Amino acid sequence: MDFGIKRKRITILLIYMLMTIESVPQEFDLFDFGKKIEYFPLVEVNSYRWEGGYFWEKSKTELYEYDDNDNLLSVTFQRWKDTVAYNMSKLKFIYDNNYNIIEAIAFLYNHSLWKKDSRSRYTYGSNNYCREEIHERWVDSISVLSFRVQYFYDSNNNLIQALTQTWIDSTYTNNERALFEYDENNKLNLSQNQIWKESNWVSKYRIMVYNNKNEKQYNNTKQFWTKSTWSDDMKKIQKYDENERVYEEIESFWNDSIWVEESKWIYNYNSNDRITEVFYFSRGTEFWTKKMKIEYIYQK
Questions:
Q1: 164-179: string of b/e by CB count within 10 Å (b at 16+)?
Q2: Cα–chain-centroid distance for residue 29?
Q3: pLDDT one-digit tens code per residue, 49-94
Q4: Residue 119 CB-density burial (10 A; 0-12 exposed, 13-18 middle, 19+ buried)
Q5: What per-residue confidence (pLDDT) applies to 17?
Q6: Poorest-confidence range of 32-46, 143-157, 169-183?
Q7: DSSP annotation string for the chain
Q8: Residue 149's closest CA among 129, 135, 163?
Q9: How many CB atoms lie within 10 A of CB 194?
Q10: How confident is the model at residue 3 (pLDDT cuts 50, 70, 90)?
Q11: 231 C-beta neighbours (distance < 10 Å), count
Q12: What CA–CA distance (Å, rounded) separates 95 from 210?
């Protein structure tokens, strides 16, 4: 999710925090293709479920804190039960002199105490784009290596490869990689995910991107590599308004020979072009049904 002035494209690459427990999100966006995402002045995100077709029930909250330079210091994740918010997990961030995130530490809330769970460390190139992230877990108060991700760029600072390697038997071993291709205008037009299998890179899926500003529409199609051919799986279409803001996003899945609409997102904005509400709908045989609402609150 882009909280800046305009949301022009979705984020394909997500920087993964090392969290496998249910109470912590599996992914939290720190970077967009290697460049740090600026969340300020976002201070709170609330998620609601549509219950029984009658009312919105709050289910989750994210609380954002910043330093005097508007750098994100922490994000606290809470769950709601019976109108009461309960702390679940927290991320804290440490910066270098260039305001780059060099550490992200994950904590779990247990018996009124915040306990360390995992840590991610980041290094950067001269252009302040992320070059490597190393993930560790705390086991019996000892930091244990888990995996790393290395990022490679072309001469235009476009991300062209994200290589993930797992720490096994005191060495890093290839696990998976994402490859990215761009058009002559440096716009992403293809990403591909591959896994390391029997000492070779094997294609898993790819996402083909189409973005036409004249038509005020963006779409991407996800295909899986099966039996030596690419097979359609999912398609996402985003529609833009006259201010180049996404106002609708529809996901469809491939069913034998046709695309079937499955889910829809509707975006609302304030006068500063910042997202204030997102509504999620799922589709049955004929109608769209409300499922979830996300509310964004900013500093005044």
A1: bbbbeeeebebebbbb
A2: 4
A3: 998 778 999 999 999 999 999 999 999 999 999 899 999 999 999 9
A4: buried
A5: 37
A6: 32-46
A7: ---SS---S-----PPPS--STTS-S----EETTEEP--TTEEEEEEEEEETTTEEEEEEEEEEEE-TT--EEEEEEEEEETTEEEEEEEEEEEE-TTS-EEEEEEEEEETTEEEEEEEEEEEE-TTS-EEEEEEEEEETTEEEEEEEEEEEE-TTS-EEEEEEEEEETTEEEEEEEEEEEE-TTS-EEEEEEEEEETTEEEEEEEEEEEEETTTTEEEEEEEEEETTEEEEEEEEEEEE-TTS-EEEEEEEEEETTEEEEEEEEEEEE-TTS-EEEEEEEEE-SS-EEEEEEEEEEE--
A8: 163
A9: 19
A10: very low
A11: 11
A12: 36
Domains and CATH numbers, the chain: 31-298 (2.40.128.720)
Sequence-distant (≥ 6) Cβ neighbours of residue 131 within 8 angstroms: 123, 124, 125, 150, 151
- The encoded tokens of residue 162 equal 């994200």
| pTM of the predicted protein model | 0.86
pLDDT of the residue at 62: 94
Q: Pseudo-torsion of CA 254, 258, 262, 265, nearest 10°?
A: 100
Residue 224's identity, in one-letter code, is F
CB–CB of 58/37 below 8 Å? no
| CA–CA separation, 110 and 235 (whole Å) | 40
d(CA 13, CA 15): 7
Residue 288: partners with Cβ closer than 8 Å, 6 or more residues away: 264, 281, 282
